[in-house]
Amino acid sequence: MHISIFGIAKRNLKRKFFRSVAIALSVAVVAGTLFSITTVMESVELSIMRGTARLGADVMVVPSDAELKARAALLAGDVATFYMPSGVMDSVRRSKGVAAVSPQIFIESATFDCCDIADLRLIGFDPATDFTITPWLKERLNRELASNEILVGHEVARETGQRMKFYGNSFTVAGKLESTGMRFIDNSVFMPMQSARRMISESATKSKKPLAIAEDRISAVLVQVDPAYQPAQAAIYIENAIKGVKSVVSEEVISSVRKQLFVLLKSILMVSVVLWIMALLMIGVIFSMIVNERQREIGLLRAMGARRNTVFGLIMLEAAALSALGGVVGIAAGGVLLFSFKNLIRASLHIPYLWPEPSRFALLIAVSLALAFLTGIAAALYPAARSSRMEPFEAIRKGD
């Protein structure tokens, strides 16, 4: 009866089931950790790119006492409202280094009967000057929003054509923005400034919770900086020229996210390196024990005509099978955990989080599987080489 090397390897793995499971789990931990870290890094980078592109602003000018709220809104998507005189926009426009400005007003939807969904950020924008929503409208709708139309972020539970009510006013969803991973955009509703002003005015008679926001108030001024200046420079000029405001620079917000992420990942990577070394050592020790336990079997195989490379291949095949299994299990577990707890990750770390593109996701999986496979192969290399050098008679004698 002919028995292949694959059959022998399969029998050996089944025979020592718990030991095989231990090796596979060791590889799974390494693969899952690497996959999770790289996926989080990729998701944050993608979210930052999409979010800043949709925001379209180099600098956001807000009241001086609302700087922390504005940063928290951009990073974690906190729904906060703050207001300042609309005349600030003209002062910002005249500031050095400023190329374009556009006002926005933030309104929070309430839990009363006035609003269909609570805890949403309602953003009024000026179609005449806007560079955040208007480009999307030109590309997708090829028209401006009507006075009773709104756009919703990706996380808002409404679809195009459905209606939403805020503070006694009914609106039709004209479109839904693509996901950016930034809750500041994904959890917001956008409407023309005139519609927002009308809603504020009519809330006194149409809503149980009237809005007390003066006509001459805005929440923020979005700024596009002249290419000849750095955003940080323009921000300093704005703050020096205008009292009572703070300039939140998009690049600084991004840098803070990356810095925060770097500190976290540096710690995780250190732990991952330790885990990887431990996994290598443990797998190497286990396979050395396997070789010692199977000296008689190896000697018999050699005596029956098995070549040195056949014995070497048998040990490496077992290591490859367990490594591949561990890699698949680790990556699957890491992916499930990341997807299940992505909102918790974003909220606890105050970072944007967007699932990677399919092509990048496939690449991350491939790299993590490759590392898992190489981990098992590298750990078993020496024991496999040692087993192949055994002389048949000596191996049989020691194995007795």
Describe the structure.
This protein has 400 residues and is of the alpha+beta class. It folds into two domains: 5-50 and 256-399, no CATH class; 54-249, no CATH class. The protein contains 14 helices and eleven strands. The protein has helices spanning 5-15, 17-55, 67-76, 88-93, 134-141, 183-186, 193-206, 231-241, 250-293, 295-303, 308-340, 342-349, 358-388, 392-399, and strands spanning 59-63, 84-85, 98-108, 121-125, 149-152, 163-166, 169-176, 188-192, 217-218, 220-225, 245-249. The chain has a nine-stranded mixed β-sheet, with helices on both faces. A two-stranded antiparallel sheet has the order 2-9. Helix 1 crosses helix 11, helix 2 packs antiparallel against helix 9 and helix 11 (308-340) packs antiparallel against helix 13 (358-388). The relative contact order is 0.18. The mean pLDDT is 82.
Question: Can you give me a brief rundown of this structure?
Answer:
This protein is an alpha+beta fold and 400 residues long.
Number of helices: 14
Terminal-residue CA separation: 25 Å
Beta-strand fraction estimate: 5-15%
Report the strand count: 11
Helix content: 55-70%
Instruction: List the helices and strands in order.
Output: HHEHEHEEHEEEHEHEEHEHHHHHH
- Give me the side-by-side strand order of the main sheet: 6-7-5-8-4-3-10-1-11
Residue windows where pLDDT falls under 50 for at least 5 positions: none
